[in-house]
Please model this.
Amino acid sequence: MSGAKGGGSSKMTAAELMALKAERLRTDPPYRAQVEAVEAERRARVDELRIAEQPIVEDLRNAGVEVSSVWDLVNTAHPYPKALPVLLNHLQRGGYPDRVMESLGRALAVRPSASVWETLRRLYLAAEGSGEEEGLAVALAASATVDCLDQLIALLDETSRGSTRIHFLRPIKRVGGNRGLKVLASLRTDPMFGKEVRAILKSRD
Model:
């Protein structure tokens, strides 16, 4: 009597899975049509976003910043001071797809954005898309200084901003000194912040 536990492993390797998928694509026309439709939709979304951000890319190039997408700035470790005014200008203009608005916010998540922190805060509180809100929260967290502490703490009470407020916990510790630690300690059991707070207080960062 053979059992499920006998013999070798029943798990397929990655190569076997790829081969199975390739075989199904070759022999199953409905499946192939479904896969092709999903891929076509993905490419259409990518093209739409690429076209939508072209005015930003063009202005960045005119400022001497050579990129093919705003995400190129998000993913680089090199400073790009010439880009910051361009990014902020387009962020304030708005009207872009949410994913593009998110990229603008994330690209402003650098220490030099401290000079426009209050503007970023206002934009964050007015953000409409979830990506835009997330990107601006990341920018506020990255550029916060000790002068922003009161407003950082106050942002924790902006319940309309949902879970994006979690981004403010680490900068509160970073710039807040003993006061920041006390604020975090008071949130140890908070249903929204508690888990992250406990992790932050254990860390040495």
About this structure: The chain has two domains: 48-143, 146-205. The mean pLDDT is 90. Residues 29-52 form the longest helix (24 residues). Residues 137 and 164 are 6 Å apart (CA to CA).
